Amino acid sequence: MRKIKSLSFKLWFTIMSAVILSVAFAYSLSQYYYKNLYVEKVKSDLIYEASLLAADYAGGKITEEYKQNIEWFNSKNESETFVVNNPRELSACLPFDIDYNTLISEEERQMLLEGKPIEKEGYEERFEKNIVAAIIPLTDGDRLEGIIYTYIPVNSITDLIHEFAVKWIAAAILFMLIVMLLTTKWLKKLIHPIRDMKAAAHQVSNGDYSIQVRVTSDDEVGQLGHAFNKMAQSIHLEEERKREFLENVSHELRTPLSYIKGYTQAILDGVIKDKEEERKYLQLISRETLRMQHLVGDLMELTKMDRKQVMLQESPIAFAQFIEDFVGKYQQVIQDKQLQLQIELDPDPIIMGEERKLEQILQNVLDNAIHYTNAGGVISIILKQNKETCELSIADTGRGIPKQHLPYITNRFYRVNKARSRSDGGSGLGLAIVKKLVELQKGELKIESEEAVGTKVYVTFPMIQSEWL
Questions:
Q1: Residue in 95, 149, 140 with CA at minimum distance from that of residue 115
Q2: Strands of the 129-140 sheet, one edge to the other
Q3: Which residues in the chain land under pLDDT 70?
Q4: Which residue ranges does the record assign to the Histidine kinase domain (predicted)?
Q5: Mind listing the domains of the chain with CATH numbers?
Q6: Reported pTM
Q7: What is the 3-state secondary structure (H, E, C) of the chain?
Q8: How far from the centroid of its chain's Cα atoms is residue 440's Cα?
Q9: Do the Cβ atoms of 400 and 453 come closer than 8 Å?
Q10: Engineering a disulfide at 455: which of 103, 289, 415, 449 sits with its beta carbon 3.0 to 4.6 angstroms away?
């Protein structure tokens, strides 16, 4: 039953049904045309032969010599041919007594008198058989001296048609066997990649995402194979990212939890006697708790944005002033790290946005720029307006991002530095959050970077037009 439901059987059954129907139709058509064309050819040949015999008639009464010539022709030919020299008394030409007047009707006799040949097809009572016949008049002036009557029994035609049918059916059976063999081989070759994909899909469902199917064609099946391989690669990459993320989160949680557990246990066990040292331990516990809170907060933020549960409280914002106020919070950090800050802000752009979300965007981008730029480096912040949009660029002269990582840098869970060091790199959520927040406020995010040269982040927002105000 499963075999009957398979795609290969359905294709095989469809093709064979089409072939059988085509063969049956071709057979019926050939039978029809063969029979009709053959009968027409027989009639034409009978008239031609009889006309040639009639051409030897020189007029006057029909002689015995002429009759003998006709009889000789009859003995050499497949058709039955004879002469009737008295249309009203035809029995005189045969060895048995038959009233031959019934061979031709009054209408046919008139046609013969006019010199027209007659074709006949059907059952002839006097011969007690189905025949195909032709009658040619032998006229002398306006007198009908006799006729040449020639016919072939339909049985002989039927025998030929039967012989043709037997040969045709034998050839058709051989043809269908060859078609069945070739179709079966072709379908096996066609279905084989699909079966490979089915087996590969089972492996993917069992967790083996590294599987790839072999693609041997450029048709729809080949395109399906390429699509499957891309899908498997995407799933594999996503699983790697998730695994990486879980490892990162586990590490980020394990480290502060270890601190919290150790410091708390030390306090509970009474190891710490000095109040000042106890306060220091409690501050460390508070700091690590805050780190975990931020990590969980980031995850919840992304989840809400994925589910479109974030509602913006938008208002018009003078973007240049907003940026200047925000960057002021980083002046001390930038000085402590001995970085140069260059700011060039166009005061005109006004955008519609939510301040807290914009702060998150700037904080993530600026934190990265400061973190990955060494002492003596430069961070530049430029805001300029275009026709209907404004563009904020934050550039640094830090270590840069390798080219192969750029297409994935805004993917969540992705980190350029795979080492899970607390001092180098976060959980891989920062730029993913930035991208989501920018898109949420109808903006665009673009990142350019060159290794050992620096990184430039472009954030573009639509401006409020003057007629909106």
A1: 140
A2: 80-84, 143-153, 129-140, 118-124
A3: 1-10, 12, 31, 33-35, 86-103, 156-161, 244-245, 248-249, 251-252, 255, 291, 294-295, 298-299, 306-307, 309, 413, 417-428, 466-469
A4: 248-465
A5: 2-159 (3.30.450.20), 220-306 (1.10.287.130), 315-468 (3.30.565.10)
A6: 0.47
A7: CHHHHCHHHHHHHHHHHHHHHHHHHHHHHHHHHHHHHHHHHHHHHHHHHHHHHHHCCCCCCCCHHHHHHHHHHHHHCCCEEEEECCCCCHHHHCCCCCCHHHHCCHHHHHHHHCCCCEEEEEEECCCCEEEEEEEEEEEECCEEEEEEEEEEEHHHHHHHHHHHHHHHHHHHHHHHHHHHHHHHHHHHHHHHHHHHHHHHHHHHHCCCCCCCCCCCCCCHHHHHHHHHHHHHHHHHHHHHHHHHHHHHHHHHHHHHHHHHHHHHHHHHCCCCCCHHHHHHHHHHHHHHHHHHHHHHHHHHHHHHHHCCCCCCCCEEEEHHHHHHHHHHCCHHHHHHCCCEEEEEECCCCEEEECHHHHHHHHHHHHHHHHHCCCCCCEEEEEEEECCCEEEEEEEECCCCCCHHHHHHCCCCCCCCCCCCECCECCCCCHHHHHHHHHHHCCCEEEEEEECCCEEEEEEEEEECCHHHC
A8: 34
A9: yes
A10: 449
**165 CB-near residues (< 8 Å, 6+ apart):** 27, 31
Asked if 291 and 252 count as a contact pair (C-beta separation under 8 A), the reply is yes
Tell me the two tokens of residue 248: 């990162």
How far lies 28's CA from each of 19, 22, 169, 173, 367, in Å? 14, 10, 11, 15, 85
Tally Cβ neighbours within 10 Å of residue 371: 14
How far separated are the first and last CA of the chain, in Å rounded?
72
Residue pLDDT, tens place only, 439-448: 988 999 999 9
Q: Which amino acid is at 283?
A: Q
Q: Which letter does DSSP use for residue 409 in this model? A: T
Query: What pLDDT score was predicted for residue 446?
Result: 95
The pLDDT of residue 67: 86
Which pair of tokens denotes residue 168? Answer: 């045709």
Q: Which two tokens stand for residue 305?
A: 């944005």
| Residue 92 confidence (pLDDT) | 36
Q: Which amino acid is at 138?
A: L
State residue 3's pLDDT score.
53
What is the dihedral sign for C-alpha 113, 114, 119, 120?
negative
